[in-house]
Amino acid sequence: MNCFTAAHILLPQQAPLETWACIAVDQFTSQPDYWQKAEELTAGKPSTLHIVLPEAYLETPQEAPRLASIRRTMEEYRQTVLTRHVHGYVYVERTQQDGTVRQGLVGAVDLEAYDYTPGSKPEIRPSEATVAERIPPRLKVRRGAVLETPHVLMLADDERCTLIEPVAACKQELPKLYEGELMLGGGHLAGWAVEDPALIGQIDAALAVLGDADAFAARWPAAAGQPPMTLAVGDGNHSLATAKAYWEELKPTLTPEQRAVHPARWCLAEVCNVHSPAIEIEPIHRVVFGMSAADFDAAFARWCAGRQVQLAENGPQQFRRVENGDHRVFAMTGAPEPLTVGTVQSFLDDVGAKVDYIHGAQAACQIAAEHDGPAVALLMPEFAKADLFKGVVLGGVLPRKTFSMGHAEEKRYYNECRALAD
To answer: What is the pTM of this model?
Structure first.
């Protein structure tokens, strides 16, 4: 069995995308006005917003009542809203802000083929380090849920374009499931049902080749002999880790026969080709709260001195510190981590800084400037997407919150659903 497979996918029969589909819950965590606008837009209407918990509300007084409402709404939607069924994959096209079209396949990830434990080498690997502390709050949402809807984006290293692009070439022959604009500037989305057995077989065959051990060794000679990696998690790493944690929690309660077929063994996700021109890999910036520019500069200089890191006018690792329009470039040699973001994150972890992770340099600077108290934005350098698979295969996971796939508004919206209980 492949690590990514066809699924029984649920969709609403009649619900406009603009109100049905909402953005990933880990976006706009420091911008509650976004979620307020989304709630006003979807009030009284079927929406995936009503079956997910935005992380802005995690571990707040709103969490418990929202979780109770989510459970009730899932039961209702399963019976009365999600009445359109797809047995296979969904081919999706997302038109982004720059006009490019991101192509993907929605299917089911086998959680038995995924592991976020450091040092493990499964078929599906996280591209960034998983923060174990982030899983328990999310488990509260997963436990007892009868539905799931994904914002996980997986990446395939498919240089020959064998997996998704052949499906795109015949989309006119496929039944169209939905098309429309997404809420609050999310762009355009369209989806087609992939249910033809021959086309499903073609997808499965392409996946098998991508996971072939000999092909993997030929592409990565330095990793020859290692178990091959078929897919990397591009976005939604902690959502997939939460699904895995829930499955591992559930497994001891099941017989071997039940484990083989239980719906919680799988997690819906969208797979994209990292070689697509529409896939943009952007750095994730940091906003540090409780530190002024002077505080940060002094603390970072002390930290560097204690680790024999040289600060100079030029260096292989560079980032910008911004406070109310005041910029300073930090350039380093002798840094302890191979990537700038890793060095900066190591400092932030060591000093116990309160940090938010922001997509977009302008948004990071604005959040720091508008914060009620001292705050600085740390702007990370560009991240080359060609290095993503190389870094994961040869060097293990990247530092957490290293990169983002596109702008915040271009994250995967919750749309397709799947039942987690029989």
So the answer is: 0.82
Calculate the alpha carbon distances from 61 to 31, 58, 66, 368 in Å: 18, 9, 9, 25
pLDDT at 391: 75
Mean pLDDT of 15-27: 94
Its CATH architecture, for the domain 281-384, is 2-Layer Sandwich (3.30)
Pairwise pLDDT comparison (132 vs 230), residue with the higher score: 230
Q: Are 301 and 186 in contact (CB under 8 A)?
A: no
Nearest in space to 128 (alpha carbons), one of 378, 404, 330 = 404
Give the Cα separation of 258 and 329 in Å (integer).
56
Strands 7-11 and 403-405: unpaired
For strands 101-110 and 266-273, give the pairing. antiparallel
Max CA-CA distance within the chain?
63
Task: Please report where in the chains the tokens 């009030």 appear, as a residue.
Answer: 43
Q: How many residues can be counted in the chain?
A: 422
Kindly list the domain boundaries of the chain, sorted by start residue.
4-280+407-419, 281-384
Q: Which of 90, 106, 26, 96 is nearest to 279 (CA)?
A: 96
Contact 328, 320 (CB under 8 A): yes
Check pLDDT > 90 for residue 97.
no
What one-character DSSP code corresponds to residue 98?
T
Type of residue numbered 30:
S
